[in-house]
């Protein structure tokens, strides 16, 4: 093979690899609007969800409420970029033997994240939809005991 052909193949290979790595990083970057603290006001009080960047390929989150001076954590969550996919990985106290459950990306855009695990009891789908820069709707859905269910949590940003 001639030197020019080798050079051409090398350049094309590097360009393809570079384009793939840019695309690879874009999924987690598309989710950056989730970073911050979000509040869902209910009749029983406020539920919060806080997301921080834990590295280039991971977000760390938690869902909790505050009662007096006590913080009650419901779940710890990770969103992790692995190869060409994002995973939503919650760990819920007193559920699934307190082990993490993996939900794979079903859809991702600049305004929506949808994760799915068809084998999970409930929910099978977890979605976040950005309404404005300071409001979103979190939704869990799926089938439980043979019946379709959906819970919606409108949230407002309280901290960036």
What would you say the CATH architecture is? Beta Barrel
Give the helix level as a range of percent. Answer: 10-25%
Summarize the helix and strand pattern as letters. HEEEEEEEEEE
Estimate what percentage of residues fall within beta strands: over 45%
CATH class: Mainly Beta
- Largest sheet descriptor: 10 strands, antiparallel, barrel
**What sort of overall outline do the alpha carbons produce when their principal axes are compared?**
globular
Q: Give the CA-CA distance, first to last residue.
A: 55 Å
- Number of discrete helical segments: 1
Strand order of the largest sheet: 1-2-3-4-5-6-7-8-9-10
Mean pLDDT: 88
**Helix-strand makeup class:** alpha+beta
Low-confidence stretches: 10-24
What is the CATH topology descriptor? Lipocalin
How many structural domains are formed by the residues? 1
């Amino acid at each position: 093979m001639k030197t020019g052909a080798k050079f051409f193949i090398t350049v094309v290979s590097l360009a393809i690899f570079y384009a793939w790595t840019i695309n690879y990083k874009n999924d987690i970057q598309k989710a950056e609007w989730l970073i911050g603290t979000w509040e869902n006001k209910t009749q029983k009080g406020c539920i919060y969800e806080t997301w921080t960047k834990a590295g280039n390929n991971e977000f760390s989150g938690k869902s909790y409420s505050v009662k007096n001076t006590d913080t009650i954590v419901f779940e710890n969550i990770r969103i992790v970029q692995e190869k060409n996919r994002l995973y939503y990985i919650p760990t819920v106290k007193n559920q699934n033997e307190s082990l993490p459950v993996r939900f794979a990306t079903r859809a991702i855009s600049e305004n929506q994240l949808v994760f799915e695990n068809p084998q999970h009891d409930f929910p099978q789908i977890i979605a976040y939809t950005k309404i404005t820069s300071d409001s979103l709707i979190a939704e869990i859905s799926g089938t439980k005991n043979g019946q379709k269910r959906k819970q919606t949590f409108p949230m407002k940003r309280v901290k960036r």
